[in-house]
Amino acid sequence: MTTRLLRDGHEVVAWARDPASVGRAAEEGAVPAKNLEDLVAKLSPPRHVWLMIPSGAPVTDTIAALIPLLEQDDAIIDGGNSYYRDSVRRAEELTERGLHFIDCGTSGGIWGLENGYCLMIGGEEEIFLRMEPLFASLAPADGYAYMGPSGAGHFVKMVHNGIEYGMLQAYAEGFELLNASRYELDLRRIASLWNQGSVVRSWLLELAELALKRDPKLSSIRDYVEDSGEGRWTVFEAIEHDVPATVLAYALFARFRSRQEESFGAKLIAALRKEFGGHAVKTE
Known about the structure:
Layout: H1 2-7, E1 13-14, H2 19-28, E2 31-32, H3 36-42, E3 48-51, H4 57-66, E4 75-78, H5 84-96, E5 100-107, H6 112-115, E6 118-122, H7 125-138, E7 144-148, H8 152-180, H9 187-194, H10 203-214, H11 230-240, H12 246-258, H13 264-277
């Protein structure tokens, strides 16, 4: 993101906990900062401080450290995957201090440098318009949009990631079935084929083709799938609004199952089948 901003003529002051990251940004043309105090001092008012850090305490702590350093009309942008309710609260707290807060859901991952980032932006519309040149530099054509007041950007990104969970699960189940079939199927070739006009073509399927090209049987990867919060929040929201998001919920629970070395629940089912029907159980 720093590189895209610099290439488009923006002045960027860069700081990160990892000095090597700051050094790489400086090589690209950014002004290096030693700490948050130095970063704020090197920015011209009205300042725009963009955070790309993990949700939760890291964002809370960083904002708390920034508040006494900033001046009225400065703005903080959270471009990470924060919970939208946290973003609403943070916006209210900063407004009371004469500061602005923008929640910017960011999608595109490591391919964003080449392709641009999809930006879903919430907060004060006036501040969005003030910062619009930054969004235009980061995004592809038509790749950013104002979603509404504080929290709207992170809410839309939350649902985006919930949908992503479901799409990933659908591809996972389909390719597992292909892999288990009686045929010696070339999974990479199938992924490539489906991207040629098929109704299931997508960027995710293009990435599946790349992964299968590197490792056709995915033998170097453990079947352990992490989640970073957005899927859980999406399911919580679905429950609160009585929305039957069954695919998204199942995709989240499938990730939990992937982390179990062995399932106690599955053991209980096997034991009960033996008790009521005399079905055999495996002991190893």
